[in-house]
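look at this fold:
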Amino acid sequence: EEAEQAARAALFGALAARFLRAAGLRKRIAPGDPATIHAFRVAFKKFRYTVEVLAPLLPAFGKKQFKAMNAYQTCMGEIQDLEVVAAALSRQSPGRMRTMPASLLPVHQFITQQRADLVNRFMRDADELLTFWQSISGSTNGTLHSSSRGGGPARKQ
């Protein structure tokens, strides 16, 4: 029992560390700097995957929360995708002029606007990160439960 409690504490500590890393990077997001959103996205993915691995020990964290985490991460992925496309459009071959061909300007403007819209939407919802943690920490009362030993209600699907 003592070893099991120590293992659970270590697992919850690892999960908390992933959350704290993501939360720290969330605070550093600069909407005009896509690299800060990407860094946060990577940290969030690690947090999310840790939650998924520990799901059997998180009895009240169910399908609804996982879907919300996926949507949250997807929004950041869409921003990154548009950033990659915009960067590719802006690249020039060595020795070529630094101006974008006129035929690509409407495409570049569209992508830039789409990216700005996504960033604005994401920034409005960026603190949703905290609700994921509240769902985890509130459901566990600071400890992880064993669904196999009746340590809490069954995880909702």
